[in-house]
Design brief:
Elements (H helix, E strand, L loop, with lengths): L2 H14 L1 E2 L4 H18 L4 E6 L2 E7 L5 H17 L3 H11 L3 H5 L12 E6 L4 E8 L3 H16 L12
Parallel strand pairs: 1-4
Antiparallel strand pairs: 2-3, 2-5, 4-5
Helix pairs in contact: 2-6
Length: 165
Amino acid sequence: MGWNEDLERIALQERELVLPRLDADMAWEIGSRLRSMARERGLAVVIDVRRFGQPLFYAALEGTTPDNVEWVRRKSNVVARFHHSSYVAGIKEKMKGQTLLESQALPLADYATHGGSFPLRVAGSDVVGSVTVSGLPMRADHALVIEALCAVLGRDYSEFRLALE
């Protein structure tokens, strides 16, 4: 498993995991699926589904902290800015040996390039929002989001999952 392999797989995820719409009901379905998965697995995560500028679903499971809330905000800001996964931004930073502060003059207090926020694209449109999880290691946050989106969209998760570490 390497950065280039993850970038290729995430490009596939971003291209193929497209929603028919992003309204309150779809956000509830995605967020509820994530919440159920996290509870079944005993995971302490914060979940956020939003259209840019409008929160549609939010849940903080037992064991999370205000710090997780901040990570969600900062990761979703990356998706809103670049329309790509926060994990992609993080990998690209590592490959360049720079931070967003150095490469884009974006304050680290407002942008986090750690996995867990994924762009929500609507069929026939562009990226209109994000789904974000915080509480696990960044690759696991990303993987949980992808697994839930696959379940909601009726896609086979094994075709989209990141390679095992």
